[in-house]
Structure formats: C-alpha cells, structure tokens
Amino acid sequence: MTRAALTGSQFPSGNLWKILPLALLVCVTLTLPALAQEKDKLWRTLSVSGRGVETIPTTLAQVSLGVEIQGKTAQEVQQEAARRSSAVVAFLKSKNVEKLQTTGIRLNPVYSYTDNVQRITGYAANNTVSFSIPVEQAGTLLDDAVKAGATQINGISFVANDEAIAAAQKQALKEATQDAQQQADAVFSALGFKSKEIVSIQVNNATPPRPPMFLRAEAAKLADASTPVVGGEQEIEASVTLQISY
Question: How far apart are CA 81 and CA 126, in angstroms?
Fold first, then answer.
C-alpha cells in the first residue's frame, strides 16, 4: 500500500522532458533583459573630472636655522656647537614656538689640499632645528635668534594653519564636484541625452602644494638690520571624477 502510493506520486519522466525546455526558455527570457540592462549601464557612461581651487592667506612661518662652528679639534668644535645650540633652543622655547625639533647634527673634518695631498686642517660642526611661528613674529624672532647664537638661517616657508587648510580642502572638493557635474550637464545637453545616475565617484585628495623654501642666508649678514618677513597665499587644489550613466 505504501509502496504503491509512493510510486504513484512520482513525476512522470515523459512529462519532465516536455516541461524542461519550456523552463529553460523562461529562464533565458528573464535573464537576457537583465544582462542587457547591466551591459547598457556599463557601456553607456560618461566620465568627467572637475577641479576646485581655494586660495587662503598664510599665517605660519616654517623656519630652519642652525649653528655652525669651525675649529682645530673635533671635541672643541662639538662642545662649542652644543653650547650655542642649547642657547638657541632655550631662546626658542621661551618664545613658545610650535613644532620645535632637531633636524640635523653633523661633525665633519675640514680638508686642505697641497701638492695633491689631502690633510685635515680642522673640524666643522653643524646643528640645525626647525619650528613654526606666526608670520608677524618671524622677523623679530630671527633677529633675536642670531643674537642668541644662531649662525645660519637655512630657509623659511609660509603655510596656513591646520584649521584653515581643512576648511579649504572641503570647499575645494565641493567646487570640484560642482565643476564635474556642470561639465556633464553641458555634454548631455549638447548631445541630447539625459543623465540617469552617478555610478562611480573618485575623489583625489585635496592637498596643498609643498610651500617654497627661501634661499639660505648667513645669519651674520642679517645681524645689522631688521629682517622683514612677509607671508603670501596658499592654494588648496582638489579634483573629483564622476562616472554618470545615460
């Protein structure tokens, strides 16, 4: 009784082979439009890149200065360089400069050449530090740093503060996005197409260019005159690429 019931409930093999082609046809019919839509979305796209630039005033001076000493013996030179460098660092700390750090310590022999013979005639030590200071304070501070013992001003560059740069980066990205969208609208309008959706967005980091470093100056030449320091402007640039289907 049970075996007969089970046997009777099985799907007839003849009907299966008749229905299978129809089922495959339905699957293909449903799949092909979806594939066509995906292919259409993939190939019918427009890529545009927009650019945004923000200009902001610089408010910080990034300074590199140092102490260079020459003498007969390595120990004598190194000790004098350390003494003067300590005085300069103490002075800079008293002025509450930002991001103060040592950037170089060197001790090298000084050579002379006579009749193609190389001889050591002495030693030179060089200690350098870098720091940031508001632009309006930079000139006076450089003069006072020379009085404290600095013998070299290796360079000075100007940047905006971190908050101003962050705000400018956001604004530059917004401008770049709007620029890309406007370009796309102009192309679609000229060709008589309508945009559908943005399928891809690529954001290139909005970064300021490396600030230019002014030429190195000998501190001794600046000792007799006040040093004028004038900051400039800094550009923050961003680009955004949009891929838009139509």
Answer: 7
Cα distance between residue 52 and residue 42, in whole Å: 28
Domains of the chain plus CATH, in order, are: 45-55+165-207+240-245 (no CATH), 60-159+212-233 (3.30.70.2970)
pLDDT in tens, 191-234: 999 999 999 999 986 666 555 555 444 444 444 556 778 788 89
Residue 31, classified by CB atoms within 10 Å of its CB into exposed (0-12), middle (13-18) or buried (19+), is exposed
Distance CA 201, CA 45 (A): 13
Strands of the 217-218 sheet, one edge to the other: 98-114, 117-134, 60-71, 152-159, 217-218
DSSP β-ladder status, 117-134 and 197-207: unpaired
- Nearest of 71, 96, 98, 97 to residue 82 by alpha carbon: 71
Contact 227, 145 (CB under 8 A): no
Look up residue 50 and give its two tokens.
């927009």
Residue 164 backbone zone (phi > 0: left; psi -120 to 50: alpha; other: beta): alpha
Instruction: Please state, in angstroms and rounded to a whole number, the distance separating the CA atoms of residues 107 and 81.
Output: 10
| pLDDT, greater one: 8 or 235 | 235
